[in-house]
Amino acid sequence: MISSSFFIFFLIFSSSYAAIQDFCVADYTAPPSSAGYSCKNPSDVNVGDFCVADYTAPPSPAGYSCKNPSDVKVDDFVYSGLGVPGNSSNINKFILKTAFVAQFPGLNGLGISLARGDLEVGGVSPMHSHRGASEAILIAEGKVISGFIALDNKAYVKTLKKGDIMVLPQGLLHFQVNAGDTPALIFASFSSDNPGVQVLETALFQNDLHTELIAQTTLLDTTEIKKLKCLLGGTN
To answer: What pTM was computed for the model?
Structure first.
């Protein structure tokens, strides 16, 4: 039987160890090694509970600066924008509504975000990637074919039903297709507050890159490229 004193010591040791492992702020007073900088003493680091995005200041590549804690309200941690579907009347019959840090200030610095995807019958979330995050999708309604392409060009594809979850690794091209005869609803979570997104079809055909260059670099026919540029709003 574990004694009470040992149990208390175990709790203290575990808490201390966990706190040390939560972060490692670089100690610039010590020279870096081949493995990187050593860690500051945790007692010398001022880590706040949160950093609500300050939209009055411009964002940097590192994210938003923090709102003054005295100005933070509970509504900064609540977002209601995913409760209703968006307008999916478009060429793909699909709409994505995001709860990223640009819309939801309480996410700033927390490394998470969410989104809602609505797919009409026949709808498609076209091939795209998120440079800054892995993604997990939950099928809330309908039947969806989902998949991604690994760097070795192997495709991983599965037909998902209501309640199924699929993980889509960071940076890989992936897609979803409504495979049912009713609208489909997907909720997605990301491992970043700002995962970024690049859609393949718009990257190729909604730009001002010359058609001839696209043809040379993709092996697509120039007639088809011009048709798609016209459809998606590209030029040249």
So the answer is: 0.73
Per the listing, tokens 């940076």 go with 171
Q: Where are the alpha helices (DSSP H) in the chain?
A: 4-22, 200-205, 211-218, 222-232
How many CB atoms are closer than 10 A to CB 148?
20
Span 1-57, pLDDT tens digits? 545 554 444 444 444 444 444 556 566 677 877 777 777 665 554 456 889 999 988
Strand partners, 165: 138
pLDDT in tens, 79-100: 999 999 989 888 899 999 999 9
* Positive or negative torsion for Cα 182, 81, 195, 75: negative
Please report how many Cα atoms fall inside a 13 Å half-sphere around the Cα of residue 115, on the Cβ side: 26
**Which pLDDT score, from 0 to 100, does residue 75 have?**
93
Lowest-confidence range among 17-26, 95-104, 129-138, 182-191?
17-26
Instruction: Label residue 37 exposed, middle or buried (CB < 10 Å: 0-12, 13-18, 19+).
Output: middle
Nearest to 146 by CA among 109, 177, 108, 181: 177
Rounded (5°) CA angle 179-167-82: 70
- Of 135, 132, 79, whose CA–CA distance to 102 is shortest? 79
Strand ranges (E), the chain = 94-99, 113-119, 124-129, 135-141, 144-149, 155-160, 165-168, 173-178, 184-190, 198-199
